[in-house]
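Q: Hi! New to this. If I give you a protein sequence and the SMILES for flavin-adenine dinucleotide, can you show me the bound structure?
A: Yes, paste them in.
Q: Okay, here:
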Amino acid sequence: MSELPKTASVVIIGGGVMGASTAYHLACRGYKDILLLEREQFFGTGATGRCAGGIRYQFETEVNIRLSQKSLAMIESLEDEIGQAALVQKCGYLFALTREKDVEAFKRAVKLQRTLGIKTEWLTGDEVRRLAAPCNFPDVIAGSFNAEEGLADPNSIVMGYINAAKRLGATFLTNCSASSIDIDNNQVWRVNTTLGNVETKTVVNCCGPWSADLGNKIGVNTPVSPLRRQWLVTEALPELPEDFPFVIDFAQSLYFHREGNGLLSGMSNPNQIIGADQSIDTDWELKHIEAAVERMPLLSSTGITARQAGLYEMTPDAHPIIGPTPVTGYYLLTGFSGHGFMQGPICGKLMAEILIDGRATTVDVSKLDYQRFAEGRMIQEYNLV
Ligand SMILES: Cc1cc2nc3c(=O)[nH]c(=O)nc-3n(C[C@H](O)[C@H](O)[C@H](O)COP(=O)(O)OP(=O)(O)OC[C@H]3O[C@@H](n4cnc5c(N)ncnc54)[C@H](O)[C@@H]3O)c2cc1C
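A: Thanks. Here is the predicted structure of the protein with flavin-adenine dinucleotide bound:
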């Protein structure tokens, strides 16, 4: 068990996918004395460990598509790079559209995806019904499908990066909560934790749904809010085709994908109130089950084997905040608004570029800066689930 060092060149706070990827990519670039702090007993038990594991290219904004392009390639080659497979399953993502306004928005998005080299297919209602069987979609007008998308394993990616970074000399501590950051003359100089204090000039906040707390204490108002989302897993469903895709009923934010021999299903509550409650909302679960059974009648005769609630880390424009803040040495890598697992690999690399080179070069994320909220430069993403 490592002890809290007295100094570190960088302190990364939060041991989910963002913190783990940042630590690894800094270590790869030769950064020394990297320290990552995680307040829980284990790494990856925040949003990352509670996520649905989906990886996709199908977004509406160019920056999200480009982040996915790079990140999914990194996920696929993870085993070659660090010796830990990400357990990718390319089942394909199928968006089923029942409203004209969604059809228009998705048509535009698919066109942009294709311009950027992503081969998403446009489907008729009948084609969606065929691909989504045994779902019941009488009202579907059209859809989009990409066979190269699917699922990966969050724990493998987090622990893969952590173990690889440890081999390169980075220090990781669990059961260590960062309580505050001291600044002097607008420059970070110390992180105070439950295990003592560590001097550093650089802090990267990777606290996911909880990332507003530390910044707010030093006057960096951080527009990231926790929003509960939940899913359940069913008993085995032998009737489910082997190649059943990740199906999303977009209008209802209702989704299904295979999970072992059963099915994982979630539905986003549009009236969910901001807050850090991670307990299962049983009233919402009943509504979700009703909607799920209507879409997939065979679910009426199966039981639930697992359920999970976690927190999205929402920003006002559903895009992350990546980079420096008005306090020198205090950086944010947070606010991924429901799709940060898949973007973790590339975003840790970009954060390393920002810290070492002064700007991210692998993907231009200059639009995802902290100042955009104050300066009215928000960018909206339509394709949120
Ligand atoms: C139900 C659900 C389904 C999702 N499905 C998908 C999906 O299919 N695909 C996808 O790409 N994304 C999905 N997401 C979103 C994704 O999980 C997140 O965007 C991503 O995991 C965020 O990673 P992170 O490292 O920023 O945060 P986290 O994984 O939450 O990590 C933050 C860590 O910081 C620690 N921490 C917080 N405060 C402190 C402190 N003061 N000191 C020390 N440690 C601290 C926490 O304990 C936590 O471990 C889903 C999320 C949820 C909740």
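A: The mean pLDDT is 97. Let me know if you'd like me to explain how to read the tokens.
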